[in-house]
Amino acid sequence: MRLAIEPMLIPRAISDIQPEVLDEAQQLCDQMAHIDNNVRFADLNQRFHDLLLVLDSGSWTARIAGILRAAAAPYVALTLRAVPRQIYDSNQDHYKMVEAYRKRDVELAQQLQVSHLNSSLSILEHILQS
Questions:
Q1: d(CA 88, CA 72)
Q2: How far apart, in whole angstroms, are the C-alpha atoms of residue 118 and residue 107?
Q3: 96-115 per-position pLDDT tens digit
Q4: Which end of the chain is more exposed for a tag (fewer CB within 10 A), N or C?
């Protein structure tokens, strides 16, 4: 469901986001770059995505996306445990997302978000099939 909902939130989020929010998202990326604890990374990961996407928190769509992100956090931690390199790769995606938001590049931000979610989903599917 996140694959369907989150890209829909990006155009408005990009148009409304303030530079200080992007600075905070960048700081979270910097913190995640130095974390090797899967659970802590998953927590910061959720905060990162909340910053970028929950700007329109008055809408049902944004609320649903937030609930889905919270529900996904343990699964994100599981994917990070299964594939430790995912911490690095995921955070590289985060840096690119912040840059796309700074440039107000909706299409790139949507592509990055979908790719980011698909990466975790692919790892999770592999775990469940094993």
A1: 19
A2: 17
A3: 999 999 999 999 999 999 99
A4: C
